[in-house]
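Q: Okay, next protein. This is Ring-cleaving dioxygenase from Haloarcula salinisoli. I've checked the sequence twice, so it should be correct. Can you predict the 3D structure?
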Amino acid sequence: MTVSTPGIHHVTCIAGDPQRNIDFWVETLGLRLVKRSVNQDDPGTYHFFFADAEGTPGTSMTFFPWEGMRQGKVGSGQVARTAFRVPEGSLDYWEDRFDEYGVDYEDRVERFGETVLPFSDPDGLPVELVAVELPEDEPTVPWTEFVPEEYAIRGFHSVTLWLADAQRTEELLGEMGLEEVGTEEAEGDTPGDERTRFAASGPVGTYIDVLPTIQGGRQGHGVVHHVAFQTPTDEEQMAMRDVIQSDGLRPTQQIDRHWFRSVYVREHGGVLFELATSGPGYTSDEPLGELGERLVLPGEFENRREEIEAQLTEITVPRSESAEADD
């Protein structure tokens, strides 16, 4: 089997206050809360999934809001930036929206011929919007409760890995089927260094950028926990796992995450990679029209619902005025 990934499946991050996290990602950025659950390794903590209208693979930004954790710091061995696609010509709208909502954003930059708008979420997580021309067969489905379709976020564009020694990671990305497509001088955080871009085979979450840095980091609020790559079927996932293992790494066995099946590995530079299948998907336990409306407790956790709910902070999902009028 030829091994390659269509691109990024999801990115999981660490947040602080859960209500603030939901308010920002749903109302300010206009993503849909497609799953409200708990961290399956720490069920006293929420796990929120924000995505397009249908939870399409390649659109899910997920968060563990660990309220008691310290502020993190982005550094070597981490996903330093997460970028989303937005339609060409929409960045003026987003700057106006950020002004309205008090979002901290920076001047636009040009990168590989595309315009990038960097900003931060309320926990200080570095995020970017990249203006792109959407293909005619665009696979994402915009959610339009807060942001009109012509401006809405359309899944991942890329992630940027900060690495002290990038060579072995770059070789691994090649073995995973990503193609090196260009280099250019980096702007911003590490001026003078060279950014190398790798491309996957799919239209969403296509790019992985690699940037050398020895800047130290730490886990905490405002930091990415891991990046997951699409391995749509079990067979493709096992083939990719074999490739990773043959590179001298130690991937886990497959773990059932209820909405997808996962394999995890700490790659050579220290970034936590996940391989995730496409199914069963977010509609496997909730109708499409009701995604995110209730707390879903997978598997054996349902038997502990009363105990788990007692540990969780009460939250409210934002609703637009038009949605409330329809109720």
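A: Here is a summary of the prediction. The chain has one domain: 8-326. The helical segments are 18-28, 91-101, 167-175, 234-246, 305-311, 321-326.
Q: Noted. On to the next one.
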